[in-house]
Amino acid sequence: MITTDRMAAVDANAAALGVPRKQLMESSGNAVAREVRAVAEPGAAVALVCGRGNNGGDALVAARFLDEYDVAVHLLGRPESIRTDIARENWAALANADVPTEAVTDSRDFDPAGPDGDAPDVIVDAMLGSGVSGGLREPERTAAAAVNAVDATVIAVDVPSGVDADTGEPTGDSGSTTVRADRVVTFHDEKPGLAALDADVAVADIGIPAAAERYTGPGDILGLDRDPESHKGDNGEVLVVGGGPYTGAPTLSALAALRAGADLVRVACPESVAGAVQGFSPNLIVRALPGDRVGPAHVERVASLAAGADAVVLGPGLGDGDGTREFVGEFLTEYGGRAVVDADALRVVPEVDTDAELVCTPHQGELVGMGGETAADPDERAELVRGFAADLGHTLLVKGAVDVVADGDDVRLNRTGNPGMTVGGTGDVLAGTVGALAAVTDPFRAAAVGAYVVGRAGDAAADANGAGLVATDLPDRLPEATRDE
Ligand SMILES: NC(=O)C1=CN([C@@H]2O[C@H](COP(=O)(O)OP(=O)(O)OC[C@H]3O[C@@H](n4cnc5c(N)ncnc54)[C@H](O)[C@@H]3O)[C@@H](O)[C@H]2O)[C@H](O)CC1
Ligand SMILES: [K+]
Predict the structure, then answer these.
(1) Which residues does the annotation place in the binding site for K(+)?
(2) pTM of the model
(3) Among 66, 259, 307, 333, which residue has the fewest nearby CB atoms (within 10 Å)?
């Protein structure tokens, strides 16, 4: 099962892995042709109704494969309005292969029966797929009604036009037109909303490599960019709780959170280091806690600060004194929001019963310290991490040459980054980055994207500084690493 957003990410990851979209479209078109052959004998009349996007492109390919049928292609719009060059190439190929085609510019002219007036045996609905937004507009709306009015077997490409593949509901309001399909041939994996439809659903493998789903890639960032209408605070407020024996760690986390997109970052730290932390950057808002270590006396104060944040980053530079461990346990017991837990705070997590949604970011040693297991083989390690995440009831991001991100259901691997990143402080940068992302997306995705972009920032830093990279090289490189390619 895959959602349309995740499908778009996997599609982009496949492209980044070098799988040409044209190849995917050829495979999709071939799958559509197979569906036609499954329902109609050679010589049957097949009308392919194509939109201007890649959904239409799939059917333009299919038309080429169906030469033993009486094929007619109806493009809804002018050929020059076809959106992508791969779909345009397929249109041109059809015209050269003397397949009857017509470009419908006025929806009132559209008749799936075509010029000879005989109703087709099969109609392929390739008007709109995952690129649909809102209820059907013209000419697709009139065309959908015309398709529904014909007594033919309707095969929908990817999803029936006008249907939201995630919900099975119309993409417009409940009364809006959708194509009623007898069969749906969807690509790569089942979509959540298709089961609700009164149609047979076939899932076609179109050659998307498993790595496009298993490993993070540029597609995982899609959709995280800011809403241009957003204003201060919408893009996340993060509270970093750390410092004590160390001052650099909470600062690195806080700077990373800002560079990863958080609007406001506050740092709750012992007053003994507050001056040093504030001194690192005027961008930070420091909330000093009495004394030189974070302890149980600070739980109420930190809990009230956390209530005003979208995500907490707990642990950088806290140290592992008894009082600090007690603080972490009591704070997490009380806190019910989202938190990234790192460094010395990690070992408390297995003992604490919390309503919070946690992302724990241990390295392999810290994972074992929490009671988890690791293995040399990446797939075995991934399965062990997934099982431990299920036991913990939280998301794990286990750092390594290949980072393993897992919650009880899903596992994703990240292979950006380089050995230069073993330098101290990069874990603090990662924790802050995941904190900023957890403020705007779900914990699993925050961990996967966080691992990916910090690794890319580390790779950019290594390009510039070789193995001499230091953690402070990373935050400023996060914006570039987080940009949609
Ligand atoms: N995901 C994959 O790996 C593959 C997907 N394929 C096929 O590509 C479509 C998605 O193609 P896309 O071009 O993104 O969008 P659509 O073709 O679905 O539609 C875009 C097209 O439609 C117009 N439009 C959008 N909303 C409406 C509306 N409400 N009313 C009218 N018109 C609308 C929009 O302006 C565009 O012009 C996917 O479904 C698969 O079939 C690849 O070919 C194979 C790999
Ligand atoms: K369709």
Answers:
(1) 55, 125, 161
(2) 0.93
(3) 307
